[in-house]
Specification:
Oligomer: single chain
Helix content: over 70%
Radius of gyration: 19 Å
Order of helices and strands: HH
Length: 79
Amino acid sequence: MTQSEKEAALGVDIIFKIGAIGILTAVVSQILKNSGKEDISTLATLAGVVVVLFMVLSLIGELFSSIKTMFDFSILPFL
């Protein structure tokens, strides 16, 4: 498997993880709402959103570091 294939597989993997967290959060939220625990249902939904937010923030951090690395290497030969 080449590097680009690994990166594409990683992208698809992240999408599936986010989707799985969303489905799991929705199921837990509905179960809690039907049992009369709306407050805990809201907290469970918020926890799912926070988990996905941290996943996305780490990916954005990796993106910025790779962009920084790319521009650092392109400037070095001209110094």
